Structure formats: structure tokens, C-alpha cells
Amino acid sequence: MTNSSQKDEFYPQGGLNTASYDLRADLDRQIFDDPIPFYTRLATSLAHENGVLELGCGTGRISAAIAKSGIPVEGLDLSPAMLDQARTKYPNLTWHLGNMCEFDLGRQFDLVIIPFRGLQEVTDADDQRRALERAFAHLKPGGAIALDLMDPDLRYCLPEGDPEFVELPLFPMPDGIGKPGSRLRITAMERTNDPLTQKFSEHWRFEEISEQGDAIRREDAWHHLRWVHRSEMRLMLEISGFVSMSEFSDFEGNPPKYASNQVWMAKRPD
Ligand SMILES: C[S@@+](CC[C@H](N)C(=O)[O-])C[C@H]1O[C@@H](n2cnc3c(N)ncnc32)[C@H](O)[C@@H]1O
Q1: In whole angstroms, what is the distance from residue 213 CA to residue 38 CA?
Q2: 226 in ligand 1 pocket by Cβ < 6 Å?
Q3: Which of 74, 117, 121 to mutate to test ligand 1, by most ligand atoms within 8 A of the CB atom?
Q4: Do 62 and 25 form a contact (C-beta atoms < 8 A)?
Q5: Does residue 15 lie in a domain region?
Q6: What would the pLDDT profile of 236-265 be if each residue is shown by its tens digit?
Q7: Which residue range forms the structural domain that includes residue 212?
Q8: Distance 146 CA to ligand 1 centre (A)
Q9: Residue 114 CA, closest ligand 1 atom number
Q10: Ligand 1 centroid vs 211 CA: distance in angstroms?
Q11: Which of 14, 39, 31 is nearest to 147 (CA)?
Q12: How far is the CA of 47 from the centre of ligand 1 (A)?
């Protein structure tokens, strides 16, 4: 069995995690709230000629859905491997390699979005605020920001972490990867927490399982994230200059709810 451990890069080039991202995101859409209709609806109503910027665009699935309505959209991501997927799948869109905490595209958009917990992958509180300030600077006056995060379930944020393993249903192997007939097993392993900084790290295991049921390739990766409390998020938006904040617990506009999603919208003043 080939075995590799990517402790520091969660989206490695050529890795099973990066290659299977869209499969997992699709499963997530089926089981939980689907972010795509929300962000496409917003883009249709708020984005005009200046278009949309997606920060932490990953493989480009949300930008691509928005672009289908003819709205100009650009994506920015820190991971070359994720951007490679976006460039291959959607070569006609504009993709930027960059850090959402310190980029300057030299232009302003009608709408900036940070979908699917992208801001939580920025694991430092000051950097999260810098990312919001960069988003603000890239908005036209009167433009809007929208983003979603996981509202922290405090049972899983304790210093002792969470040792429980959760195995996802077997996936088909992503196109072009693996032996014929093999499938992909993904297991969420233990989680460690640092309540002082609100950082947590999830250990993920990706395994190619042969037709005979043996693990023939294994990759381990750590997903580093930071949980953000609602009040903190509101203050970060305020400090970054945003006004007219709205907050929901899902993509249907339901009111805030503990341990659910945090869905935020705010405006750059006119
Ligand atoms: C959970 S994925 C979301 C991808 C995409 N928005 C979607 O909904 O499928 C988070 C993405 O944020 C990117 N990311 C993490 N930190 C970043 C940073 N500082 N600047 C830009 N992108 C970042 C990761 O590389 C990853 O592609």
C-alpha cells in the first residue's frame, strides 16, 4: 500500500483529497443545505456589470454556477492544486492564485462571496479580519459581501478534542485516478481543539479500496480551521467597515440558531 501523510497541506497536488473535493461537496449538498442556489440567486439580484469575486473559490463549482447566468465572476484561492482543478474544469473563467488576507486585484466588484466556510480556513483572528478588509476594498460603494461559516457546537470545542471516527459512505474514485473497480473511503478521524485561539484541526484519512476490499493507497491530511462566534463575526464585519448586517442560520433566510450555519450578508456603505 502507498502511504503518505500531508500534515500541513490539506489540498495537495495530485492528492486524493483535492481530486475528490467535488464528489464530497456534492454529497454535502444532498445531505445538508445547498449553498449554490443561495449564491447564484444573490449574484443574479446584486451583481451588475462589475460582477462577483469569490474568495477561497477552490475547484470553482460556485463561481461556475454563477457564471452560467451570464454574470462576470472571478475566483481567488491560495491552493495551486484547487485552482488547477478550477482552471481545467472552467478554462473560460478568471482565476487568481492569492491569499484572501493580502491580495489586490486593482478593481472593485458588486458582490464578494466567501462560501462554504472559506473564512474558517484562515486560522488567525487578525488574518480573518484582514480578509474582510480586503473584501471591503474590492467592493464598489453599495456593494455586498456574503459568506457562510459553521456556528461552533461548543461540545466539540473543548480542550480534550473529539476522538470519535466517522466513516463516510464509499465514493467512486475520482476520474482518472486509481485501479479499475477501486473506490474511495474517507474517514473523519480525531479532532484537536485550542480554545484559547479557537483553532481546531481535523484529521482526515483518504484510502483507495480495491475491488477485493483492501486499502491499497492511503493519504492522511489535517484540516486546520478556526471557529468564529456570531458576536465576533458581527464585530469583525463592523470593524472592517461593513453596514446593514443580516445573519441567518441557513440559505433560506431562517433566523440565527446555535450550532447551525452562520450565513452573513453585509454592505459597503454607498
Ligand atoms: C472549503 S473550500 C471552499 C471552496 C469553494 N468556495 C466551494 O464552495 O467549493 C475552502 C477554500 O479556501 C481556500 N483558502 C484557504 N485559505 C485561503 C486564503 N488565505 N486565501 C485564499 N484561499 C484560501 C482553500 O484553498 C480552499 O480551496
Answers
A1: 39
A2: no
A3: 121
A4: no
A5: no
A6: 999 999 999 999 999 999 999 999 999 999
A7: 154-226
A8: 15
A9: 6
A10: 33
A11: 39
A12: 21
Q: Report CA(27)–ligand 1 centroid distance (Å).
A: 18
Give the separation between CA 94 and CA 164, rounded to whole angstroms. 40
pLDDT band at 1 (very low <50, low <70, confident <90, very high): low
At residue 3 the predicted structure's pLDDT band, cuts being 50, 70 and 90, is low
On whether both 126 and 49 belong to a single domain, the answer is yes
Does one domain contain both 146 and 242?
A: yes
Q: Are residues 168 and 236 in the same domain?
A: no
Cβ(263) to ligand 1 under 6 A? no
Whether residues 137 and 260 share a domain: the answer is: yes
Residue 113 Cα: closest atom of ligand 1: 6
What pLDDT digit, counting tens, does each position of 147-166 carry?
999 999 999 999 999 999 99
* Residue 129: predicted pLDDT: 98
Distance CA 9, CA 111 (A): 29
CB-ligand 1 contact for 122 (6 Å cutoff): yes
Q: pLDDT of 183-213, one tens digit each?
A: 999 999 999 999 999 999 999 999 999 999 9
Residue 116 three-state SS: coil
Per the domain annotation, does 46 fall within a domain?
yes
